[in-house]
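Customer escalation, tier 2.

The customer says the design service returned an amino acid string that "doesn't look like it belongs to this structure." They asked us to rerun it and document both sides in this ticket. The original C-alpha cells are below, unchanged.
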C-alpha cells in the first residue's frame, strides 16, 4: 500500500504530490544499497540519537563542573570558564561549515569522522592534567562536534521512508531538547559522586558504540565521496566565517563578565565580528561555490521558519538560564537541586515528542507550532507570578506542563523549515538552521543574564526608596530583627539582603513576562509561513 493511500483520512499535512523516492539506503552518498528496515533501522536510529545526545550534553554538562575543574587544575573560576567558551566558539565555527564539508567529503564520511574524533578528544579532555591542554582539547572537541547534530538529522531523514520521516524528526528532536535539560543534572551527579574527568570519559563507550553501529549500517560508496569534491575551496569565505563567528561567540561568552562594551577587548571583538560577518554576507552573495549557501533564504518559508525557531530558542533560553539562576541566587538552591527542579520539563517533552511524531501527519504544521507557542506563553506568564514562598512542588509544576509545548513547536517547525529544501541542499540547510538556532540561544543566554541584572538594579532602586524610618512596614520589620538580636551593621545587611532578594524576584517576573509575550508574537508569525503539506515527507524532494 502506498503512503498516499495509507495516510489518515482528512490529513492536511500529507496531501502534497511527491516525486518517487529514490534516496539510497547508504545515506549521505550516492549508491544503490537497500533502505534499512526493522531492527537494523531501529539500531541505527538509536546510535545516531546517542551521538547527538552526547554532543548536545557536552555543551551543557561542564556548566556545573567549572568550580571542580578550576580547583583540580589550580586556576580561578573565571579562567575555568574557558573550558566552556573554547568548546562553544569552536562548535559555532564548525556547524555552518558542515554543508560545505559534506559536499566535498560526503555526509556519511564526515559524520563518522566527526563521531570518532569527538570521542578521541573526549578521552584527551578526561586525561588532561594541565589546564591549557584541557582548553585546547575542548576546542578540538567543539570543532569535531559541529557536524554531528545537523548530519545526524540529515541521515535520519534520508534513512526513514517518506511516510515515517516525522517520526525520525521526533526522535532526533528528543535528544536535542532533552540533553540540555539533563546536562546540569548529570554533571552535578558526576561531580558529587566521582571526579570532573568523568564528565568527558563517559562519552567513550557511547561514542565507540555509535561509531561502530553507523560504520556497519551506513555503507559509503567509495566511487562518489562527494558531489562537489572538485569544487573550488571558498577560502575567503572560510576565513571570514572563522573570524566573524569566532569573535561573536567570544563576545557572547565573555561580554557579561567583562561589562560588555566598557571592555576594550569586547568592543574590539564586536567590531571585528560585525565587519567580518557583513563582509562574509557580501562575499557569499556573489560566490559561485559558497561555504554558506545564502540562496536558501530566497525561500520565504525557510527564512521565516529559521527566524521563528531562533527567536523561540531565545525564549527557551530564559527558562534554561534565568530559572536555575533564580533558584540558586534567590531561593538558595544548590546547583544539583536547581537541576532537579528544571528536569521535570523533560518528562512530558519526552512523551509528547513521541506523540507528535506519530500523529503530526494529521495536522497542519502551523497549527501544532502555534499550539506549542501558546502553551509556552501561558506557562511563562504563570512563572512570572512566582513568589519567594514557593515550595518545590509549586516550582516544578509549570515546568512539567511546559514540556507539552516544547516538542509541539520544535518538531513541526523544524519539519516546515526543511519542507521546501531540495535533496542536494538538505545538509547545507540543516547545518545553517542548526547554526542560527544555537547562535540565537547563545545570544539569548548572554542578553537574558545582563537584562536580568539590569532589571534587578532598577527594582532595587525603586524598592529601596520605600525602606525609610517613616515607613510602618520598615519599622515593624526592624523591630522583628531587634527581637531576634539583630541590630547595627547586621540589621543593615539584612535589610539589604531582603531588598536585593525581592528585586531579583521582580526581575525574574519581568523576564518571564517578556518571554511570554515573545511566544505570543511567534505564534502569530507562524501564519506568515507556507510549509508544504506533508512537510516531513517532502524533505529532500
Amino acid at each position: 500500500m502506498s503512503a498516499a493511500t495509507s495516510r489518515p483520512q482528512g490529513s492536511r499535512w500529507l496531501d502534497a504530490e511527491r516525486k518517487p523516492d529514490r534516496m539510497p539506503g547508504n545515506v549521505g552518498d550516492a549508491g544503490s544499497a537497500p533502505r534499512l528496515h526493522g531492527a537494523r533501522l531501529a539500531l541505527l536510529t538509536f546510535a545516531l540519537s546517542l551521538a547527538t545526545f552526547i554532543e548536545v550534553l557536552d555543551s551543557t554538562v561542564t556548566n556545573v563542573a567549572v568550580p571542580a575543574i578550576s580547583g583540580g587544575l589550580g586556576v580561578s573560576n573565571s579562567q575555568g570558564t574557558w573550558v566552556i567558551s573554547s568548546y562553544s566558539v569552536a562548535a559555532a565555527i564548525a556547524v555552518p561549515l558542515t554543508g560545505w564539508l559534506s559536499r566535498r567529503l560526503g555526509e556519511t564520511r564526515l559524520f563518522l569522522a566527526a563521531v570518532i574524533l569527538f570521542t578521541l578528544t573526549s578521552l584527551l579532555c578526561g586525561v588532561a592534567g594541565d589546564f591549557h591542554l584541557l582548553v585546547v582539547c575542548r576546542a578540538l572537541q567543539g570543532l569535531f562536534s559541529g557536524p554531528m547534530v545537523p548530519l545526524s538529522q540529515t541521515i535520519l531523514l534520508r534513512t526513514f521512508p517518506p511516510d515515517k520521516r516525522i517520526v525520525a524528526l521526533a526522535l532526533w528532536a528528543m535528544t536535542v531538547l532533552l540533553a540540555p535539560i539533563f546536562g546540569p543534572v548529570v554533571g552535578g551527579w558526576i561531580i558529587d559522586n566521582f571526579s570532573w574527568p568523568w564528565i568527558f570519559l563517559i562519552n567513550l563507550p557511547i561514542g565507540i558504540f555509535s561509531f561502530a553501529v553507523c560504520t556497519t549500517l551506513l555503507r559509503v560508496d567509495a566511487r562518489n565521496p562527494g558531489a562537489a569534491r572538485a569544487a573550488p575551496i571558498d577560502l575567503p569565505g572560510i576565513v571570514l566565517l572563522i573570524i566573524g563567528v569566532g569573535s561573536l561567540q567570544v563576545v557572547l561568552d565573555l561580554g557579561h563578565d567583562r561589562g560588555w562594551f566598557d571592555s576594550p577587548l569586547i568592543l574590539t571583538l564586536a567590531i571585528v565580528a560585525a565587519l567580518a560577518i557583513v563582509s562574509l554576507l557580501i562575499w557569499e552573495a556573489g560566490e559561485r561555490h559558497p561555504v554558506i549557501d545564502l540562496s536558501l533564504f530566497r525561500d520565504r518559508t525557510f527564512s521565516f521558519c529559521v527566524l521563528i525557531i531562533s527567536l523561540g530558542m531565545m525564549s527557551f533560553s530564559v527558562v534554561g538560564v534565568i530559572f536555575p539562576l533564580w533558584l540558586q541566587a534567590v531561593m538558595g538552591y544548590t546547583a544539583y537541586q536547581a537541576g532537579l527542579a528544571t528536569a521535570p520539563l523533560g518528562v512530558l517533552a519526552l512523551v509528547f515528542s513521541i506523540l507528535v511524531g506519530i500523529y503530526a501527519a494529521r495536522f497542519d504544521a502551523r497549527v501544532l507550532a502555534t499550539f506549542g507557542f501558546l502553551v509556552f506563553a501561558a506557562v511563562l506568564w504563570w512563572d512570572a507570578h512566582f513568589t519567594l514562598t514557593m515550595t518545590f512542588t509549586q516550582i516544578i509544576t509549570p515546568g512539567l506542563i511546559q514540556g507539552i509545548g516544547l516538542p509541539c513547536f520544535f518538531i513541526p517547525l523544524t519539519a516546515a523549515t526543511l519542507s521546501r529544501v531540495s535533496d542536494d541542499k538538505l545538509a547545507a540547510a540543516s547545518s545553517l538552521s542548526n547554526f542560527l538556532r544555537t547562535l540565537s540561544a547563545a545570544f539569548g543566554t548572554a542578553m537574558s543574564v545582563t537584562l536580568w541584572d539590569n532589571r534587578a538594579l532598577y527594582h532595587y532602586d525603586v524598592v529601596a526608596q520605600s525602606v525609610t524610618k517613616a515607613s510602618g512596614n520598615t519599622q515593624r520589620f526592624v523591630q522583628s530583627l531587634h527581637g531576634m538580636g539583630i541590630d547595627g551593621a547586621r540589621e543593615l545587611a539584612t535589610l539589604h539582603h531582603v531588598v536585593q532578594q525581592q528585586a531579583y524576584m521582580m526581575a525574574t517576573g519581568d523576564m518571564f513576562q517578556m518571554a511570554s509575550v515573545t511566544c505570543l508574537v511567534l505564534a502569530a508569525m507562524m501564519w506568515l509561513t507556507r510549509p508544504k503539506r506533508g512537510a516531513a515527507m517532502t524533505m529532500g524532494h
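Tier 2 assessment: The sequence is consistent with the input. Residues 426-464 form the longest helix (39 residues). The chain has a mean pLDDT of 79. Sent an explanation to the customer and offered a walkthrough call.
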